[in-house]
Amino acid sequence: MRKYLLLFSALLLVSCLKDRPGDTEFDSYKNSFIDAYWKLNPEAAVANGNHAYDSLLVVPNAESRAKMLEFVENQREKLQDFDPDDLSTLNKIDCELLKNLLAQIEFSVKELKSWQWNPAEYNACGQFSEILTKVDAKNTKKVNELAYRLQFVPEYYAVARENLKQVTKEHLELAIAQNDAAKAVFTTDLPQLFKNSTLSKNQKDKNLKACEAAAKAVTAYVKFLEGKRNGPFRSFRLGTDLYAKKFDLEINSTFSSKEIYERALKHKDSLHARMYNLAKELWPKYMKNEVMPTDKLLAIRKVIDVLSLDHVKPEEFQSAIEKQIPELERFVREKQLIYIDSTKPLVVRKEPAYMAGVAGASISSPGPYDIEGNTYYNVGSLSGWDAARAESYLREYNNYTLQILNIHEAIPGHYAQLVYSNQSKSLVKSLFGNGAMIEGWAVYTELMMLENGYKATPEMWLMYYKWNLRSTCNTIIDVGIHTKNWSEKQVIDLLTREAFQQTAEAEGKWKRATLSQVQLCSYYTGFSDIVDLRAAYRKKMGDKFNLKQFHEQFLSYGSAPVPLIRTAMLE
Question: CA angle, corner 487, sides to 481 and 491, nearest 5?
Fold first, then answer.
């Protein structure tokens, strides 16, 4: 089966790459672009599994920002030398991705300027933690690279303090929590590596002192931030103009932010109608002789509340996830929905400390430079939660929606898509992937699995629609918060009453929306683009349409924006 996947990908690539005179030169250019980018962004290289620049820690000063803008100008000039008509379909997509990446860099430095107001951007601990997962204490070369990188930590945090002008209260608290928790990298993890290494005693002592200096720098940074808790603060809201531009650059959709907002509102109403019909069907089974309310949303809520009581215990949350993964894989194979490469490990783990504070579950892919590495399914811990908070959370992630979460995060969602992306012959598509395509695919697979019969009971469909309301309302609240000045009360009311979320989940989503911008739109926007593409591709292929073939061809383009994949598949 693995040979089949590689052959399928190869045939597609041959069909897309043949007889284009500019491809050889452009392929060479892409490699030089990527290498130059990693030198300027070694932390991004680490995140993608490239450890060639582990010794580098970029100090976030004016000089480093100037170098980024210089990089943008130089690469734009080079890209102008390539005629799109001389490139294959895949390379045309890569060319557009590189242009968009350069525009994002310029926008970030010149207009967004989050380096002035977001203290959570500064976290050297996380970068070291990622590298440490790959370093053997006996590998002197890698140990020395970390030692070299370590010496820049004090300057890194000193410059961070200089950069920050008027911060947002929300990012301030996140930065304090994350840096304080992750400081253990310098007080425990890295010192242990040096002690276990084969370095001389003098080298070990020198490196241990450097660890102490790094830890002090983090402590000083946290104290500096704590001193800003009384304000004044900058608003976390981007405003209409900045938000629209960030949306266009990051989401890269057929829709504008205004258009997807309007579409999401209509979709919400459509979901409510379907959910009410299911609530009427399930009412006699679960509500017995209780009279059904005339308020449709209240009736839906009552049925959902009963179904939500079916959940695991707090201490069983992670193990329940682990048990469901093989079941999902068996279903995908039996229904022939997409090829799953079982040689690529998926490891469920407790969420690392440096990642805590934003989302309850996430996937960490090894990246295209480390395709044999583990993919981690990071699960937020409920340890230390009071009983009421844990119960609210588990009702949200009950035994129905927990399965949909696993479809989204694991199989055939993020885990499967990122394996395909890493196998793409184009590093550009894998490395600089489009978030709306990635999240949209995961949301699409939730619907696709139920469409093909995965536990498609009325109960599961009702809870799926509730879950799909999450993606839909993510877009509604994100646009509302950042461009329409929505209050926390407005957001909580929408999510609890119209999206039927538990209070803890709604409060968590408000927090997430205050810490990010645009990203929450990626789920519903990407989903909408993919569903529209599937309908168009089905119409094009007619009786020859095959769902498995559609999925594998779609994913063969790596993590490219859906509109570019659409053009390639419909041509």
Answer: 75
